[in-house]
Amino acid sequence: MPRRPSDDLYVRYMRAYQASARHTADCTACQTDELCAAGAPLHERFARLQDAYRTRQAQRNR
Ligand SMILES: [Zn+2]
After folding, report:
1. How far is the CA of 2 from the centre of ligand 1 (A)?
2. 3 assigned to some structural domain
3. Its domain of life (predicted)?
4. Domain span at residue 23?
């Protein structure tokens, strides 16, 4: 997969991933899939951006 530093969606996707992963590292609730109030929006945002990114990649590779 080509890495494009100027790719805004990719950058947001990676930041959301980092925020989500960083939170999970310190949160025992989110580690067991019982998402806490603080973590839920972070994981939700990551899932949404991951979806958008993968959809776009699939469209590009057609
Ligand atoms: Zn949490």
Report:
1. 32
2. no
3. Bacteria
4. 8-60
Confidence of residue 61 (pLDDT cuts 50, 70, 90): confident
Does residue 2 sit within a domain?
A: no
In a domain, 1, yes or no: no
How far does residue 14's CA lie from ligand 1's centre (Å)?
19
42 and 29 Cβ atoms separated by less than 8 Å: no
Number of domains into which the chain is organized:
1
Q: Are 42 and 21 in contact (CB under 8 A)?
A: no
pTM above 0.85, yes or no: no
Q: How far is Cα 3 from Cα 39, in angstroms, rounded to an integer?
A: 28
Query: Taking ligand 1, which is a single-atom ion, which protein residues have CB atoms under 5 Å away?
Result: 27, 29-30, 36, 39
